[in-house]
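Support request from a user on the community tier.

User writes: "When I paste my structure tokens into the form, the page sometimes reloads and wipes my input. The last time it worked, I copied everything first. Here is what I submitted, just in case something in the input itself triggers the reload:"
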């Protein structure tokens, strides 16, 4: 899902989320057949806002255990009544009555009206709603349990035939309708993921959570009124028009995806283009990529991709902006992480007022724009790159989004920032007031995503660990800022710590190694440790799993002239003598007359470093400090960073000018970059520009916006 600029309280509080070719041959060989196959026939009753569906599911038990039951998601029951986990959580968070619940008459739901085995055995009487996430939402109906008459043995398949009937919600989240526009997602009964030794992994539909499912082969037949334009996951393989009832049935197929979404609207424009790899990527770019990744040239070559855009007529003038962003995304995600493995990608300009924008599904995603746009603001571009990018993380490296959302959103926010920086450079802050981009009214500062991400990250460290389960975050703001921006900032920090080449290889190896799989944190750390050649587990313990701020800084910098002698009473050759200030001055004067006097004065420089945060560097990582002297010389020292502070001393014939920790700017996660550097005059130098300018501007803008609304 997209990040968004929302209500923000900055500095001291949280900055809340500002906002069939089938498989290529070489891959198909290494990919196991999917655990699931679906064939679904669904009809849209546009006037009645209903879906009528039939579904056949073939599930093969992938484990070494006999499985007696199955958990199925019925996601739309999240919008059935105010007792669903989703609406209770929304209400608890909003504290203003109904939260995001639908208006009267606009609820959504899904009923399984029939379910049987292929031999006709009726399973309907055994259906019971399950509450796998504990007792706190006892009346939630988004997960249902089916009991099989006999357990499904290892390797054995079970064929289920279902019929379902759904009321399309007037949108609460992601799916829904507005007038004659429909965005249909999370819409069909869908098995959880069976995990050996743990059983079914199927969580309720929570407000702050996305999804988890097994890879599957899909065939979906969608029947809509004849004049509707539709877009869908997968590749269209058949169209049949039934003139007698003025309906059209489209068939879409896609293998090796774990979800399937579609949209329908009679007014939409459908534009098709081709991503032609040879036109988009130069030989030089292929060579650079192959060198960086240490791969043969052939392995980094990209395939062509058919791109489809469904766009509202009022946004027609933005068609080229949409395609340019999508081409950039296909190119850079493909070069860095691995070639896009599907034949098609469909980009949907979300239907007005359906709250379906900025969301990802396999081979289909929703963007989001408005009628008035500024070319300075990289929107819809950022959303397009981001949502396409999810196809690479959530879509292909299919982590459990309920339990480890950061492995998708964090990786993708990090990746989006890199693609946007490469393809567009910095963009103006995407703040909009009443549909008008603020960039029209004010000169907005330009920034890179990683700069904004960092601001959110450092302000939300203390709310939750990045790695918490999605619906257990303090609130939606903490979920967003931690899972998207703090995770992205930490990944960028780790990139700095490990270096560009090692990092590029880590990301490639992780992506390609876990395509069509369900990796977790341990698998990623395994790849990091292997490529880095050292144990970096501490980085995850200290910074992802904790709520500790990371903040090293320079507390004091000063030089004093080292006196010729110290005052007081001394024994010199057995005789007690007092060294006075006057005698010292005389010694100085004598020295000054000697020819090499200038080199004789010495200065003692003291630099005090502090660890202001709880988090510490560990492993072989250390705190580097660069001390600059007035003659232009520098000294570099290393501190292990474990204690709360340390004092460094230098004796040199020159006074100090400044001291700086982390001079290469590796530790982007550092909570206060302003204290990283300090001059002898007390002024802070080398401060990242965004700190002063960007924070100031964002804060003022937000005050300005809130004063208007
Ligand atoms: Zn996202």
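"...and here is what came back when it finally went through:"
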């Amino acid at each position: 899902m997209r990040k968004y600029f929302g209500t923000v309280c900055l500095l001291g509080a949280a900055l809340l989320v500002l906002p069939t070719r089938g498989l290529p041959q070489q891959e198909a060989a290494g990919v196991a057949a999917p655990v699931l196959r679906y064939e679904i026939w669904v009809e849209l009753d546009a006037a009645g806002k209903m879906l009528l569906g039939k579904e056949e599911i073939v599930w093969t038990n992938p484990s070494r255990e006999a499985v007696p039951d199955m958990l199925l998601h019925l996601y739309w029951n999240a919008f059935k009544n105010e007792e669903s986990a989703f609406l209770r959580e929304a209400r608890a968070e909003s504290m203003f009555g109904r939260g995001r619940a639908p208006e009267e008459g606009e609820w959504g739901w899904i009923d399984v009206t029939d379910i049987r085995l292929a031999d006709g055995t009726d399973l309907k009487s055994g259906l019971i709603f399950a509450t796998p996430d504990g007792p706190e939402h006892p009346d939630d109906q988004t997960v249902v349990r089916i009991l099989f008459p006999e357990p499904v043995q290892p390797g054995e398949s079970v064929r289920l035939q279902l019929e379902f009937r759904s009321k399309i919600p007037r949108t609460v989240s992601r799916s829904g309708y507005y007038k004659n526009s429909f965005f249909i997602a999370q819409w069909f009964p869908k098995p959880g993921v069976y995990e050996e030794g743990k059983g079914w992994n199927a969580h309720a539909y929570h407000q702050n959570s996305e999804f988890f499912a097994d890879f599957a082969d899909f065939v979906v037949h969608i029947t809509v009124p004849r004049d509707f334009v539709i877009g869908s996951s997968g590749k269209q393989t058949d169209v049949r028009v039934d003139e007698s009832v003025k309906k059209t049935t489209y068939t879409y197929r896609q293998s090796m995806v774990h979800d399937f979404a579609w949209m329908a609207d009679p007014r939409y424009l459908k534009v098709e283009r081709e991503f032609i790899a040879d036109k988009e990527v130069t030989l030089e770019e292929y060579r650079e990529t192959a060198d960086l990744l240490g791969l043969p040239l052939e392995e980094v070559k990209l395939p062509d991709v058919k791109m489809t855009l469904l766009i509202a007529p009022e946004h027609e003038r933005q068609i080229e902006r949409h395609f340019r962003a999508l081409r950039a995304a296909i190119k850079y995600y493909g070069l860095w992480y691995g070639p896009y493995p599907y034949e098609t990608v469909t980009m949907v300009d979300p239907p007005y007022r359906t709250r379906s924008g900025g969301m990802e599904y396999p081979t289909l995603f929703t963007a989001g724009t408005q009628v008035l746009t500024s070319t300075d603001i990289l929107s819809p571009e950022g959303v397009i790159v981001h949502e396409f990018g999810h196809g690479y993380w959530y879509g292909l490296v299919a982590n459990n989004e309920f339990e480890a959302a950061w492995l998708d959103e964090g990786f993708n926010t990090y990746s989006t920032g890199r693609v946007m920086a490469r393809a567009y450079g910095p963009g103006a802050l995407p703040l909009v007031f009443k549909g008008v981009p603020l960039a029209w009214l004010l000169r907005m500062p330009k920034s890179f995503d990683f700069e904004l991400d960092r601001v959110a990250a450092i302000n939300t460290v203390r709310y939750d660990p990045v790695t918490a389960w999605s619906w257990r975050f303090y609130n939606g703001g903490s979920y967003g800022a931690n899972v998207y921006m703090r995770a992205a900032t930490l990944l960028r920090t780790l990139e700095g710590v490990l270096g560009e080449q090692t990092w590029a290889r880590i990301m490639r190896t992780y992506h390609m190694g876990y395509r069509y799989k369900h990796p977790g944190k341990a698998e990623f750390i395994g790849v990091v440790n292997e490529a880095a050649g050292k144990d970096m587990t501490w980085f995850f313990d200290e910074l992802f799993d904790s709520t500790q701020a990371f903040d090293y800084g320079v507390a004091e910098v000063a030089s004093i002239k080292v006196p010729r002698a110290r005052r007081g009473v001394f024994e010199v050759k057995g005789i007690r003598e007092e060294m006075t200030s006057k005698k010292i001055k005389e010694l100085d004067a004598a020295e000054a007359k000697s020819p090499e006097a200038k080199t004789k004065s010495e200065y003692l420089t003291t630099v005090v470093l502090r660890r202001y945060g709880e988090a510490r560097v560990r492993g072989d990582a250390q705190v580097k400090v660069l001390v600059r002297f007035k003659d232009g010389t520098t000294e570099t020292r290393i501190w292990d960073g474990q204690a709360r502070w340390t004092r460094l001393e230098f004796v040199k014939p020159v006074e100090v000018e400044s001291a700086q920790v982390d001079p290469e700017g590796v530790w982007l996660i550092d909570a206060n970059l302003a204290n990283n550097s300090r001059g002898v005059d007390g002024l802070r130098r080398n401060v990242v520009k965004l700190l002063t300018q960007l924070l100031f501007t964002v804060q003022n803008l937000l005050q300005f916006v809130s004063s208007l609304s």
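Agent notes: The reload is a front-end session timeout and is unrelated to the input. The first strand starts at residue 36 and ends at 45. The mean pLDDT is 88. Escalated to web team.
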